[in-house]
C-alpha cells in the first residue's frame, strides 16, 4: 500500500496532469493553517473562508475540464452517428466492424474520464477528512450542505453526472444496434432488461454505478455481509481477481454458508426436549445451543488465519468436523449422554468456516461482481436461518434401525450429517484452489505505462462519490488519517497483526456500532433460543408450532432488507434509521415482559415479531455504516473487520445462551422476565451510547 498523494501522482493521466486536484498543495495549506492558529496569527473564520475558496477553485477546475471532455466525447459520438446513418442505407460488414471499434474507443476514453473523477473524488474526500481531524471542526458538513444544495453548485453537477449518463446511453444504443443487425428492429429501449454483451459497456456501467454510490437493495445486502475491500484497488489486483475467480468455488462457499446456518438453527425447536430426554432441565437448551457459538469464537480466528494460505483445506476440515459433530449429536440420545451431545455441538462450532466464506468473496471474486456475491452471502445466510427450524418441524417421526433411534431429537443430527458428507464429496470434486502467489507491488509499475495498461486501470470504479452524502458523515474516522499521509511509514499501513492492534484501530463511533451489533445479536439469541421453553410453558405449543414460528421469523429477513435497502434508506439517513431501530428493539423487549395481565399468544408473537424485525433492520444499517467507517487497514489480513464483527456477535450469542441456562435455576416461571432484563439494559445502553457519540461528533 502506498500513500494517496504518491498514488495520485503515479496514476495520473499525463496529458490531464494540470486538471487534477492539487492534493499536495492543499495538504501543505492545512498544516500552515494549523501552525497559524496555534501561533495566534490567524482566526478560524478566516481559515474556513480561505480554505472554502481554495476548494471551490479546485472543484471548478475539475468540473470545467470534465464538461469540456464530455463535449469532446459527445462530438465524436455525433460524427460516428453520421457514419452509422450512412451505413444503414448501404450496409458493409467491414465498415460496421470498424465503426463498432470506433465506438469502443470512445468508451475507453469515457473510462479514462471516470477514472479522472475517481481520483479527484478520493482526493477531495481525504483532504476534507484531514481538515476536520486537524481542527476538530465539522467543516465537511458545512461545505457539502452549502455547496450541494445551491442551484449553481459544481458538486451537484458532478454528483448527478447527467452528461456522463447521456454519453453512456448513446454508446450503449449504437453498439447494440451494430451488434444486432441480423433482422432485428428492437432497440435497447424496447428490451431494457436484455444485457448488452460488450465488455466496454459492462466496465462503464460498473464505474457509473459506483460513481452514483446510490443506496439500493443489492448494495445494502452487500454491506450487510461486511465484506470489506480496498478504497482504490490497483489494476494488478483486479487482474489477479479475474484469474483466481472460479464460479463453482463461489457456489460451494455460498452452500457452506447456507448449510452452516441451517445447522445452527435446526436444533432450536427441539433442544429443550432433547435436554429433558437426557435427564437435564429444559433450560439447559441454552448451553446446548450456545456450545456451538462458544467454539465459533475460537474457530473464527484460526479459519481467518488459515485462509491466508488456503481456501480448500479449511473447507474440507470444516465439512469433516461438522459431519462428526452432527453424528455425535445424534448418537447422544442412544448413549444417554449429555456430554456427547455438548461435544457434538462444540465440534459443529469448530467447523464454522464463515470467515473463509467471507474471505473468499473479498479476495477471489472480481470487483465488478463482488457486491452481487456479497448479497448472495447474506441471502444464503437468511435462507438457512429460515430453513433450519422449518426442517426441524418436518422431521416429526420416530423409528429405530438396529439400536439407533431416529426421532425429532436425533433426526436433525442425522440429516445434517448426511448433508455435510454430500457437500464434502461435491467440494472435493469441483473446488478449485486459487493461487496464493504475492502480487507485485504497484510501485514497480512504470509511471508512463502504455495506454492498454491505463485502460485496464480505468475499469476500477468509484467506491466513494465526489459529493460526500449524509450517509458518509462518519467517514472522517474511517481510515486513521496517517494512512493517507506521505510521511507515514510503510508499517503504519499494514494489516492488523493481532486482536489488540485491530482494537486500537477502532474509533469511538466504530466501537459504538460494535456495541450495537453485540446488543442486537444478544436480543435475537434470547428470543430464538428460549422460544421452545417459553411457548411450551405458557402456551403448550408443539415442536411443529415452534418450528413454524421460527421459520416465519427467518422468512422476514429478505423482505425487510428489500424494504430498507430499496426505499427507507433512500428517504432517511442511515444514522436516523439506526437510532429509530434501536428504540423499536427496546420497545419490543418491553412489550415481551410478563407483568400483570396473563401472557397471551398475540402478545408473544407481536412483541417477538417487532423485536426481530427491528433487530434485522438495525443489523443491516449498522453493518452498512460499519463497512464505511472502519479503518482501511482492517480490510485485509487475519484480524479484519469481518472477524471483529463476527466475534462481537458470537460472544453476544454465547452470553445470551448462558443467561438462559443460569436463569433456568430460578424456575421456568421467571425465565422470561429474568432473560429480558439484561436485554433491556443493553438496548438502553446502546441507545445512550449512540446519542452521546454522534451528538459529540455532529
From TrEMBL:
Region (Disordered): 469-493
CDD domains found in the cross-reference section: SPX-MFS_plant (cd14479)
InterPro entries: MFS, MFS_Domain-Containing_Protein, MFS_trans_sf, SPX_dom, SPXM_SPX_plant
Acidic residues composition-biased segments: 473-489
Residue ranges annotated for the SPX domain, each copy included: 2-145
Keyword Methyltransferase: no
Any one GO biological process: transmembrane phosphate ion transport from cytosol to vacuole
Membrane topology according to the record: Multi-pass membrane protein
Localization: Membrane
Segments crossing the lipid bilayer: 250-268, 280-303, 315-332, 338-357, 369-391, 411-429, 514-539, 545-565, 577-597, 609-626, 671-695
Family: Belongs to the major facilitator superfamily.
Protein name: SPX domain-containing protein
Record organism: Arachis hypogaea (Peanut)
Amino acid at each position: 500500500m502506498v500513500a494517496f498523494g504518491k498514488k495520485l501522482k503515479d496514476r495520473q493521466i499525463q496529458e490531464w496532469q494540470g486538471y487534477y486536484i492539487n492534493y499536495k498543495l492543499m495538504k501543505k495549506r492545512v498544516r500552515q493553517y494549523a501552525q497559524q492558529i496555534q501561533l495566534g496569527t490567524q482566526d478560524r473564520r478566516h481559515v474556513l473562508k480561505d480554505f472554502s475558496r481554495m476548494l471551490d477553485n479546485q472543484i471548478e477546475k475539475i468540473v470545467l475540464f470534465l464538461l469540456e471532455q464530455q463535449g469532446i466525447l459527445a462530438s465524436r459520438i455525433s460524427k460516428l452517428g453520421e457514419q452509422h446513418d450512412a451505413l444503414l442505407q448501404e450496409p458493409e460488414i467491414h465498415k460496421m466492424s470498424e465503426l463498432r471499434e470506433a465506438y469502443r474507443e470512445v468508451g475507453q476514453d469515457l473510462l479514462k474520464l471516470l477514472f479522472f473523477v475517481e481520483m479527484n473524488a478520493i482526493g477531495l474526500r481525504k483532504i476534507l477528512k484531514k481538515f476536520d481531524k486537524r481542527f476538530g471542526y465539522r467543516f465537511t458538513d458545512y461545505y457539502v450542505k452549502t455547496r450541494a444544495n445551491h442551484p449553481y453548485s459544481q458538486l451537484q453537477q458532478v454528483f448527478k453526472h447527467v452528461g456522463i449518463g447521456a454519453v453512456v446511453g448513446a454508446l450503449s444504443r449504437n453498439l447494440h444496434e451494430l451488434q444486432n443487425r441480423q433482422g432485428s428492429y428492437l432497440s435497447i429501449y424496447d428490451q431494457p432488461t436484455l444485457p448488452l454483451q460488450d465488455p466496454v459497456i459492462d466496465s462503464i456501467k460498473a464505474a457509473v454505478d459506483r460513481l452514483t454510490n446510490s443506496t439500493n437493495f443489492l448494495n445494502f445486502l452487500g454491506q450487510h455481509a461486511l465484506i470489506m475491500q480496498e478504497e482504490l484497488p490497483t489494476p494488478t489486483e483486479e487482474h489477479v481477481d479475474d484469474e483466481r475467480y472460479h464460479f463453482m468455488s463461489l457456489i460451494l462457499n455460498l452452500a457452506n454458508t447456507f448449510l452452516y446456518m441451517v445447522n445452527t438453527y435446526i436444533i432450536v425447536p427441539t433442544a429443550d426436549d432433547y435436554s429433558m430426554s437426557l435427564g437435564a432441565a429444559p433450560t439447559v437448551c441454552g448451553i446446548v445451543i450456545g456450545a456451538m457459538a462458544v467454539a465459533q469464537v475460537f474457530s473464527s480466528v484460526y479459519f481467518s488465519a488459515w485462509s491466508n494460505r488456503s481456501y480448500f483445506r479449511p473447507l474440507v476440515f470444516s465439512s469433516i468436523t461438522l459431519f462428526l459433530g452432527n453424528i455425535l449429536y445424534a448418537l447422544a440420545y442412544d448413549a444417554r449422554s449429555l456430554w456427547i451431545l455438548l461435544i457434538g455441538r462444540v465440534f459443529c462450532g469448530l467447523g464454522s468456516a464463515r470467515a473463509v466464506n467471507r474471505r473468499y468473496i473479498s479476495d477471489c471474486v472480481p470487483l465488478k461482481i463482488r457486491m452481487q456475491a456479497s448479497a448472495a452471502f447474506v441471502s444464503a445466510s437468511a435462507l438457512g436461518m429460515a430453513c433450519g427450524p422449518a426442517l426441524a418441524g418436518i422431521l416429526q417421526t420416530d423409528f429405530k434401525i438396529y439400536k439407533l433411534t431416529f426421532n425429532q431429537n436425533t433426526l436433525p443430527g442425522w440429516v445434517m450429517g448426511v448433508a455435510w458428507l454430500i457437500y464434502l464429496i461435491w467440494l472435493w470434486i469441483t473446488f478449485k484452489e486459487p493461487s496464493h502467489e504475492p502480487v507485485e507491488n504497484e510501485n514497480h509499475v512504470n509511471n508512463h505505462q502504455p495506454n492498454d495498461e491505463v485502460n485496464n486501470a480505468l475499469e476500477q470504479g468509484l467506491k466513494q462519490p465526489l459529493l460526500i452524502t449524509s450517509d458518509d458523515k462518519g467517514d472522517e474516522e474511517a481510515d486513521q488519517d496517517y494512512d493517507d499521509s506521505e510521511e507515514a511509514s510503510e508499517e503504519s499501513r499494514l494489516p492488523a497483526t493481532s486482536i489488540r492492534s485491530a482494537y486500537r484501530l477502532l474509533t469511538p463511533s466504530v466501537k459504538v456500532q460494535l456495541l450495537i451489533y453485540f446488543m442486537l445479536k444478544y436480543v435475537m439469541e434470547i428470543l430464538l433460543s428460549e422460544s421452545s421453553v417459553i411457548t411450551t410453558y405458557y402456551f403448550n405449543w408443539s415442536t411443529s408450532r415452534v418450528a413454524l414460528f421460527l421459520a416465519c421469523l427467518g422468512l422476514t429477513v429478505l423482505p425487510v432488507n428489500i424494504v430498507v435497502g430499496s426505499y427507507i434508506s433512500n428517504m432517511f439517513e442511515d444514522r436516523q434509521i439506526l437510532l429509530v431501530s434501536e428504540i423499536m428493539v427496546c420497545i419490543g423487549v418491553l412489550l415481551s415482559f410478563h407483568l400483570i395481565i396473563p401472557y397471551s399468544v398475540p402478545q408473544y408473537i407481536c412483541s417477538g415479531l417487532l423485536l426481530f424485525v427491528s433487530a434485522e433492520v438495525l443489523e443491516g444499517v449498522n453493518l452498512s455504516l460499519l463497512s464505511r467507517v472502519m479503518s482501511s487497514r482492517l480490510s485485509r489480513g487475519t484480524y479484519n473487520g469481518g472477524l471483529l464483527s463476527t466475534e462481537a456477535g458470537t460472544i453476544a450469542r454465547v452470553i445470551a445462551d448462558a443467561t438462559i441456562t443460569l436463569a433456568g435455576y430460578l424456575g421456568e416461571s421467571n425465565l422470561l422476565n429474568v432473560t429480558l432484563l439484561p436485554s433491556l439494559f443493553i438496548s438502553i445502553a446502546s441507545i445512550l451510547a449512540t446519542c452521546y457519540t454522534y451528538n459529540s461528533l455532529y
